Amino acid sequence: MTAEVINGKELAQEIRKEMKEEVLQLKEQGITPHLTVILIGDDPASKSYVRGKEKASYETGISSELIELPSSTTEKELLNRIDDLNHDDNVDGILVQLPLPSHIQEQHVIEAISPEKDVDGFHPISIGRMMTGKDTFLPCTPNGIITMLKSRNIQLEGKHAVIIGRSNIVGKPVGQLLLNENATVTYCHSRTKDLMEHTTTADILIAAVGKPNVIDAKYVKDGAAVIDVGINRLDDGSLTGDVDFDSVKDKASYITPVPQGVGPMTITMLLKNTIKAARGIHQ
Ligand code: GUN
Known about the structure:
The protein has about 280 residues and is of the alpha/beta class. It has helices spanning about 10-30, 45-60, 75-85, 105-110, 125-130, 140-150, 170-180, 195-200, 245-250, 260-280, and strands spanning about 5, 35-40, 65-70, 95, 160-165, 185-190, 205, 225-230, 230-235, 240, 255. The site of guanine has 9 residues, from strand 4 and helix 6.
């Protein structure tokens, strides 16, 4: 079997085209969605992600502002900035780029963002609402993955979805969203014994490992849909996923590439949440 490639960049462009129309209509009603992004320090990967978010916001007609703070910023200073943004009626969505310097506790920051402006979907209230299947801001990468699967009408109900990785940003929430779609979900992680025993039974395999090309064809069931969440930079500067694309593409039914896979979809779901926040239809 040769897999059909789900190109996230093309899908993202289609969705953003519709969003642009939606934003135009909102502007006619006097509403311009506004996203504020906070970036602390000068991690090159984070800077690159943030630039991507700014560019996509601009192209969609969403107003965005980047607040760059030095890595010496204290937790208290950051929490004060967030508090100001929570009370600023011009700001619809707030995103603090992760990871943070080690002297700042990530959870304190996540919980400081008002749930009405939590466009990352990381606040415990957003997570609780997602777990109970209520309308909320869904976390962007997991929502992007589900959108990619649905774009090809890949059946989720009753299917076995195996997730490799249990991060709060991707692994755990994508499992919950798949469960909400009535899939049977298995989480694998660094302590899982015999990873292959699980992955080879997956109809849908989500790789969020963070190691280049570790998931090759041996881990994949014939005809599986394989979603690669990895963004690994190799020594030569090129980007590669967690999935060994060349070997897996001959076994899977669907596969996502890296780059041009999940990454552009994550940004698109962030824009979707920002529009949702501007509409004020949350809760
Ligand atoms: N760092 C890597 N992915 C993300 C994300 O989805 N949101 C934020 N805030 N930081 C990240």
